[in-house]
Backbone:
């Protein structure tokens, strides 16, 4: 069985296979990477370097990976279909070059990819005729390549800075077991941002304001050329034509360092959060694995080394490492090697609760595969259905999280509120894909939903979610507490109203006034005033509660017994 590993990248893709036990890149069009660019100017999709050659702003799509998981159409094609064109080109070219048919593949995805984005990636592979053995997080794939090659044990970080995305993961490696402790990233951070800074600076310096879209596109390629050719020189230059006028585009070492420092500072914020999530200090790291084309630049290596002050692993080509790890993992799955890979859930998953809160079922950074269950019940008498809203995010309020799906369990037997027992089960497989099942215990009726790419998730990066959760942490906690207070108080009010006529008449008026006062407090959302009034009511009803319950069971009323 011939298997491969595919790094389906934002700006470039790589395919590798194992040859005599050693991973090897398949060179396509003379290069180790294939630009993830597709042009539709002809009656066939044009992929890679040829697509760049024919690039225009009408028929060409760059970085389609950033759109994965969305329903939007680009050139009347979904992002999954466009990605399938890239995969088809890589697959067919590889098969022709090696004279072998690809039977299956491990494909890598960013660690922070949502369930919808992972599903879209599998759909792209299916359209391209590729059987997916497993989706693997890109940093994890890199760790496989470095870890197996060097047989390292300890705690390592993977710093993955590519053309379009950044990922940072902390992993524990021990005797063939790869466990991701925490992960984070930014889907809009990479070498493209540096290229744009270089282009903007050159346009501004040359006072260019009338460049066409195509000229801006070509200008970004010149900016990339300047960046990649600034090695030992203090200045690199290249001619560039705009509106038939030739300008001298340039990049100095000083400016390059300034642009790259901006990028690095953003990666540092992400890495700090991931280390905190993993409960690891930088001093505890046994090394940093560098991955992604940008880490080839000496400035980035200097920044990373200077900041983390730990050993840097960069003895594998950073552009090949992810596909190498994917190829190794594909082979290990087929050969049943003793390689255990444990990935984690990138974002917390939960269910909306009554009142708009979130019951967090599977927490962020939980190792997968995982199955978790929660038990819920009805809140109204004779309720025969329950609606569920599946959520993703770190906030405690449902409306501030992302909605993955809505579904309803129907056919619950009519019974008093609180007696039904409904189990909701979340299961995440090794690819990070989620399915949710709800069933009622007494009847066995069930409803199951698999979260597909049309689930409504946008492809906004995970860091935006985490940053908002961090910034709003205290305020969110107050909101969550207020929801709990409101729900619990409303429940108490309903109960007190149901028994108020069973307490002595002289206490009924006092209790009724205080209940009205408490309802007004809730309506005005003055939650800080709830507890004192609630305590007063609990004291009133508490005096008679035992008697009320005992007499209720015997069919008598307190007034009858006391003669009031």
Residues:
């Amino acid at each position: 069985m011939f298997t491969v590993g595919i790094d389906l990248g934002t700006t470039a893709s790589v395919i590798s296979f194992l040859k005599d036990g050693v991973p090897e890149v398949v060179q396509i069009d003379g290069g180790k990477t294939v630009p993830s660019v597709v042009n539709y100017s002809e009656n066939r999709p044009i992929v890679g370097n040829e697509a760049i050659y024919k690039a225009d702003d009408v028929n060409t799509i760059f970085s389609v990976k950033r759109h994965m998981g969305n329903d939007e159409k680009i050139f009347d094609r979904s992002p999954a279909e466009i990605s399938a064109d890239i995969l088809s080109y890589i697959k067919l070219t590889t098969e022709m070059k090696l004279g072998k048919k690809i039977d299956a593949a491990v494909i890598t995805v960013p660690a922070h990819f949502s369930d919808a984005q992972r599903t879209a990636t599998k759909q792209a592979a299916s359209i391209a005729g590729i059987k997916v053995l497993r989706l693997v997080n890109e940093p994890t794939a890199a760790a496989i390549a470095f870890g197996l090659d060097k047989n390292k044990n300890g705690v390592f970080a993977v710093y993955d800075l590519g053309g379009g995305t950044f990922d940072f993961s902390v992993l524990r490696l021990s005797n063939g077991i790869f466990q991701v402790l925490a992960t984070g990233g930014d889907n809009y951070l990479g070498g493209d941002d540096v290229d744009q800074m270089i282009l903007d600076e050159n346009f501004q310096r040359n006072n260019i304001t009338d460049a066409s879209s195509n000229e801006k596109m070509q200008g970004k390629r010149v900016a990339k050329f300047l960046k990649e050719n600034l090695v030992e020189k203090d200045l690199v230059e290249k001619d560039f034509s705009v509106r038939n006028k030739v300008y001298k585009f340039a990049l100095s070492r000083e400016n390059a360092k300034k642009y790259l420092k901006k990028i690095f500072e953003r990666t540092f914020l992400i890495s700090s959060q991931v280390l905190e999530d993993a409960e690891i200090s930088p001093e505890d790291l046994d090394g940093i694995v560098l991955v992604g084309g940008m880490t080839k630049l000496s400035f980035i290596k200097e920044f990373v080394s200077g900041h983390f002050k730990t050993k840097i692993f960069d003895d594998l080509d950073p552009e090949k490492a992810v596909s190498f790890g994917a190829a190794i993992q594909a082979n290990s799955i087929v050969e049943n090697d003793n390689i255990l890979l444990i990935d984690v859930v990138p974002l917390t998953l939960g269910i909306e609760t009554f009142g708009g809160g979130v019951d967090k079922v599977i927490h962020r950074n939980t190792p997968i595969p995982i199955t978790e269950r929660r038990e819920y019940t009805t809140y109204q008498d004779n309720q025969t259905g329950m609606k569920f809203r599946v959520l993703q995010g770190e906030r405690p309020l449902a409306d501030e999280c992302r909605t993955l799906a809505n579904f309803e369990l129907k056919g619950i037997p009519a019974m008093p509120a609180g007696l039904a027992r409904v189990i909701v089960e979340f299961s995440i497989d090794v690819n990070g894909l989620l399915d949710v099942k709800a069933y009622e215990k007494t009847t066995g009726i069930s409803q199951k939903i698999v979260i597909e790419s049309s689930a409504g998730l946008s492809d906004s990066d995970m860091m935006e979610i985490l940053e908002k959760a961090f910034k709003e942490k205290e305020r969110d906690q107050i909101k969550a507490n207020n929801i709990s207070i409101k729900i619990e108080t409303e429940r108490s009010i309903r109960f007190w109203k149901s028994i108020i006529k069973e307490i002595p008449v002289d206490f009924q008026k006092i209790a009724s006034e205080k209940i009205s006062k408490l309802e007004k407090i809730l309506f005005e959302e003055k939650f800080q005033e709830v507890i004192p009034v609630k305590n007063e009511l609990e004291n009133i009803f508490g005096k008679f509660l035992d008697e009320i319950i005992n007499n209720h069971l015997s069919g008598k009323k307190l007034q009858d017994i006391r003669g009031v």
About this structure: The longest helix spans residues 473-499. The longest strand covers residues 177-186. Residues 473-562 form one domain.
